[in-house]
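pinned: reference chain
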Amino acid sequence: MSFNIYVARLFAGVKTLQKINFDIQPVFVAMERLKDLQNSPVDDYGSAEDSLDISNTSVKMDKVYFSYDEQEVLQGLDLAIYEKGFYSIVGENGSGKTTIFKILMGFYKSDSGEISIFSQNYNNLSTNCIRNHFTYIEKETFFIHDTIFENIRLYNEKSLEEVEEACRKVGLLDFIQQLPNKFETMLEPDTTLFSSGMKQKFNFARAIIHPAPIMLFDEITSDLDGNSEKSLVNTLKELGKKSVVISVSHRIHAVQSSDKIFVLDQGRIVDEGKWDYLIENCALVKTLFKNI
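pinned: its structure tokens
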């Protein structure tokens, strides 16, 4: 009996040590990432008053080259938009679609070429000025340790009524109102409260709350059902009345509804136009959407 008792205590101790070991691993990873961040170059955010004259709508990338780990991603990219509207970029995986967004946001710096927004060259703009004119919504939804309310408004001055209206537009309001604490429900970074489709709706709510002259959406309808996709594409088109809205998507309704589609192949725009023209004349578009 004594032997069994001490064996049980031994295994309990071993189990505790194993748990401590599992718990400490994320700490080491976080410390390494913090060290990497400390050693990263600091962006020039410039003055908080930096601003642009946005009356002359334009987004231009001229002969832009970009390489990542010695692999050429963009190879002389030319892209030009001169008016507000809803635009799509289509292309095979790895063709550089997301890279375009990250360069526009200033996360990556191009190897060569010229980039401008509202007729102002990027070389003359601070990071603060650039990012104040963009809303960038990625495919993967992030959450912070705070309430649903703060996760949507991200600590800006939007009211509860405005957040509720954004959630109503994307089809999230009823679900949130059924939660015991509603918008005061606490979320964790690894929350499992929302399905993948609901997370994308969450992203849309953030976009509505944080409008900007240029709005970038990266594959954020990929996990939605057909009806939800159509509804949120209508929201994109509505946003396009006041902003330049650019979407990367493989979903047919989003692409068909675009005012103009840019076709990307091996780091270059190889064709552009409306859906009816491209599906008849562009071989890559036919390949991408052949099962439709």
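why pinned: The chain has a mean pLDDT of 88. DSSP finds eleven helices and twelve strands in the chain.
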